[in-house]
Every structure is written in C-alpha cells, then in structure tokens.
Automatic annotation (TrEMBL):
Pfam families: Homoserine_dh (PF00742), NAD_binding_3 (PF03447)
Species this chain originates from: Companilactobacillus kimchiensis
Domain Aspartate/homoserine dehydrogenase NAD-binding: 2-70
Lineage of the species this protein comes from: Bacteria, Bacillati, Bacillota, Bacilli, Lactobacillales
Pathway: Amino-acid biosynthesis; L-methionine biosynthesis via de novo pathway; L-homoserine from L-aspartate: step 3/3; Amino-acid biosynthesis; L-threonine biosynthesis; L-threonine from L-aspartate: step 3/5
EC assignment: 1.1.1.3
Name this polypeptide is given: Homoserine dehydrogenase
UniProt record similarity statement: Belongs to the homoserine dehydrogenase family.
InterPro entries: Asp/hSer_DH_NAD-bd (IPR005106), HDH_cat (IPR001342), HDH_CS (IPR019811), NAD(P)-bd_dom_sf (IPR036291)
GO BP annotations listed: methionine biosynthetic process; threonine biosynthetic process
Recorded GO MF terms: homoserine dehydrogenase activity; NADP binding
Gene3D superfamilies: Dihydrodipicolinate Reductase, domain 2, NAD(P)-binding Rossmann-like Domain
Chemical reaction(s) catalysed: L-homoserine + NADP(+) = L-aspartate 4-semialdehyde + NADPH + H(+)
Record flagged with keyword Transmembrane helix: no
Homoserine dehydrogenase catalytic domain residues: 78-257
Length: 345
C-alpha cells in the first residue's frame, strides 16, 4: 500500500498499473508516467481516455507496452473487444445504444414503478452505478465520453472537444412524460449514436423513444445495449451489465489476462481526418416547453401532440442548438427523439 505514485513508478517488479482513481487529473499524468516508465496500463476511466486516447496509445507504442481499457465502455460487456474484432475485416458505419447504466436504471424504474427521478437516482447511487458526481450520468456527459471512445476506434479519428457536440440528458424528464410515452407504446432511453458517411461523421447524445417490441425498450436496470453496423456483418448487438463494481472489475481482469497471455488488441493511430457534420442526420422530436418555441422552429413542419410540439425532420445538430436557446427561457424544457416509423399520435 502506498499513496506515492513514484513508489509505483520506480518499483521494478510492478509491470502492470491499473488506474482506478477516475477524473482527468492526476489520472492523465499518472497513466502517461506509468507508460513512460515501461509499465502496461489498464484503466476504466472513460473521462480521461475520451480526451487522451491518442496520446496514451502513442506513449504505449513508443515504450513498447500495452494500454487497454475494456472496462471504460459498457462495463462488463466485451464491447471494445467486439468493436475491434468487427473492425479487423469491416467498415463500421454506425454505432448506437444505451451506454449508461445509471440513466437506464432511472428510466426503467420510473416506467415500472412510477417512482420520481430524485428517488431513483438515490437508489442508483446506493447501488454504486452512478459516477461520484451523478450529473455526468444524467446530463449525458458519461455517454458522450463512451461514444467518443467508440467513434475514435471505429473511424480511427481523434475527436476533439467531444463534450461540445450535441448532448442532451434526462435531468428534466418527469413521471408524466414517461407515462405519456408509455401510453403511446414507447419506452424512453438515453442513447448515444454516431454515423459516418464519406468523410463526415455525426454524433449525438439524447433521450429517444423506442417501440416496446425493440431490444432497446427491453433493456432493463443497469444494463447497456450497444449496437454497431458493419458493411458486411450488418447489425451486431452487445448486451450486459454496463455499470457496477463486479462487471467493471471483470473487464479489468480480462485486460490483465490479455497482457499476461500477450494478446494484442487492434492497432489504431487515430490520425484519420474526418469532419463532424451537424446536418448529416435528420430526426423527429417532441419538445415540451412552457415557452412558445414555434418561432425558433418556423422552418420545419410542426404538429401538436398532447403537451408536446412535434418537430418533423430537423437536422439533429440544429435541434440541439435550438434546445440550448429554449433552456435559457425554460430551465425545465425537455426534448426526445421519435423514431420515423413511430408517429406518436
Ligand atoms: N456511471 C457509469 C454508468 C458507470 O452508470 O454507466 C459505468 O461506466
């Protein structure tokens, strides 16, 4: 036991370092120092990887050691491994899914038991699903970190400022929202999605409705469901516990065993150039606000659906920008993506 990083760095017998302190600094400096001291590094820390994946990968390569991070996305699900395996022979053109156990647990409990957001969040914290600061879970930033890592690997790029891309969380969802969506045959989930086309990619974190028969709607508790679409493999779904002490530890140990058995993971240098395109994907949205938002949305077809304004076929990036303006006037406003095959009325 030590609380001095230098003792670990200078210990010749320590050849693998598992970083589990979380956050950006000093985790970033410690990981880099461990790699530069010729030690393999394993981490579950998605916040630091989302920013420094290329830097860590370059440092590992330069020092002839491994940098593995299976537990950072999807908890116990072998998602990174599955994605990397798909990429050995395929072009992965899109990724989408439920990347956050805490928000899924909250939405699931609200739908099943009609419990309030605040009460269920407390339960998720007690079960050890939530981040130290749970706003990362409910405001979508944890999903953004995991989506950024997945997209970096899938497209071999280095996304900068991923937390400035479209992110809208579930902080403002109410029991009446959940009930209304249920009555219409939908479940609401917080999802992350990205798609590439040519040299462009898009990226969004947002609440979305799913028809009750879909896999997403049937993903309960702290489970995650992450899907990729490959040119030859088609759709592949990865399902399992996305948060929690034991599933996360399981993924960390898998990485340690890979190092022991000298199993190499996919080589990526993250140096492909692609442009983020906010107009690449269009969607339908339900917007709930106490203020009149029609003026902001006048370029799009609108229809009233109960307490919600339905916005038809708006570019995803623009919808998120408009919601930022709406939230300034109405802090409790909410929006949700609606699948095109599932008109709510
Ligand atoms: N807080 C995260 C979640 C932990 O709820 O998904 C796993 O990354």
């Amino acid at each position: 036991m030590t609380d001095d990083i230098n003792q670990i760095l200078d210990d010749q017998e320590t050849d693998v370092v598992v970083e589990a302190i979380g956050g950006i600094e000093p985790a970033h400096q410690y990981i880099l120092a461990a790699l530069e001291h010729g030690k393999h590094v394993i981490t579950a820390n998605k916040a630091v990887i989302a920013i420094y994946l290329k830097e860590f990968t370059d440092a590992a390569e330069a020092n002839n050691v491994k940098f593995y991070f299976e537990a950072s996305v999807g908890g116990g699900i072998p998602w990174i491994q599955g994605l990397e395996k798909a990429l050995r022979i395929d072009n992965v053109n899109s990724i989408s899914g439920i990347f956050n156990g805490t928000s899924n647990f909250i939405l699931d409990q609200m739908s099943r038991n009609g419990e309030t957001f605040v009460k269920v969040l407390k339960k998720a914290q007690e079960l050890g699903y939530a981040e130290a600061d749970p706003s990362a879970d409910i405001d979508g930033y944890d999903v953004a970190n995991k989506l950024c890592i997945s997209a970096d690997i899938a497209y071999n790029i280095d996304i900068k400022d991923h937390q400035d891309l479209p992110i809208f969380g579930i902080r403002n969802i109410t029991c009446s929202d959940v009930k209304y969506f249920q009555q219409k045959g939908f479940s609401v989930k917080l999802i992350g999605r990205t798609r590439q086309s040519g040299n462009k990619f898009d990226y969004a974190v947002e609440p979305a409705l799913f028809l009750n028969r879909t896999l997403e709607a049937n993903t309960p508790d702290n489970y995650n469901l992450i899907s990729l679409n490959g040119d030859t493999i088609g759709k592949l779904d990865f399902f399992g516990q996305g948060a929690g002490m034991l599933p996360t530890a399981n993924a960390v140990i898998q990485d340690i065993l890979d190092i022991k058995e000298q199993k190499s993971h996919l080589k990526r240098n993250f140096d492909k150039r692609m442009e983020y395109c906010p107009e690449l994907t269009k969607g339908n949205y339900l917007v709930r606000s106490k203020t009149d938002v029609r003026g902001l949305l006048k370029n799009y077809e609108l229809s009233q659906e109960g307490a919600y304004l339905m916005v038809h076929q708006i570019p995803v990036g623009e919808m998120h920008q408009i919601m930022k303006v709406v939230l300034k006037a109405d802090k409790s406003a909410f929006m949700v993506n609606v699948p095109s095959q599932g008109a709510v009325a």
